[in-house]
Specification:
With 215 residues, the protein is an all-alpha fold. The protein has one domain. It has 8 helices and no strands. Belongs to the YIP1 family. GO terms for molecular function: small GTPase binding.
Length: 215
């Protein structure tokens, strides 16, 4: 799960050494984590077996990769479906897609876990771990990278289907990894409400990405 586990270490937010440990991963570590995040239908927790600690390297590069693939694929998809008109005879690239992708994806992957961690510190006796939660949310975006490339195909129903499948896989990954902390400390009704809210936030992200980049 993603419960806080400090291991007795002191936390110094202005020390580089505090964050260095979370970037100390190799290719094999990243591949194992990507495989775990991309296992549709799996009820296996992210942290377990060969994955024993969170990292920030994977989430950072996953967000960065998704930003560029969404912006590039969104423009390519728009170019493929472009129809010249009197006012617009030549297709022009929309570079604002890159800016918006950067703001939305870095914001979502950073702010949502931060808020979730802060609320859990207030509500739970055993709150989420902040780095663990950022790690889970970062790796949950893995499936959107192939989805962003598939959405280049200029067929609306196919694009919605791809986004729906990506959302389903991604939100299952998140809820699988947060539900133990939530359900272990709240009654069933409140726990369900929290998990539904998590799902709705993720659905809002998915719908926004579809409508903004592939419409």
């Amino acid at each position: 799960g993603v419960a806080s586990g400090g291991g007795g270490r002191s936390w110094n937010p202005i020390s580089l050494a505090t964050y260095q440990q979370y970037f100390d991963v190799d290719t094999a570590d990243i591949l194992a984590r990507l495989k775990r995040a991309m296992s549709p239908g799996s009820s296996e927790k992210f942290f377990g077996g060969e994955i024993t600690r969170p990292d920030l390297y994977g989430p950072f590069w996953l967000c960065t990769t998704l930003i560029f693939t969404m912006a590039a694929a969104g423009n390519l998809g728009a170019m493929m479906s472009f129809q010249p008109t009197e006012d617009s005879r030549v297709f022009t690239y929309n570079f604002s897609k890159l800016t918006v992708a950067t703001s939305v994806l870095y914001g979502y992957a950073g702010i949502v876990p931060l808020v979730g961690w802060a609320v859990s510190k207030w509500m739970f006796s055993a709150p989420f771990g902040l780095i663990e939660l950022i790690c889970v949310y970062g790796y949950s975006l893995t499936v959107y990278i192939p989805a962003s490339l598939l959405c280049v195909v200029p067929i609306e129903i196919f694009r919605w289907l791809v986004v729906a499948v990506a959302f389903g896989s991604s939100v299952r990954f998140i809820t699988t990894n947060v539900k133990d902390v939530v359900m272990g400390q709240l009654d069933d009704q409140k726990a369900l409400g929290v998990l539904v809210f998590v799902g709705l936030l993720h659905a809002a992200l998915s719908v926004f990405l579809k409508l903004y980049f592939y419409s």
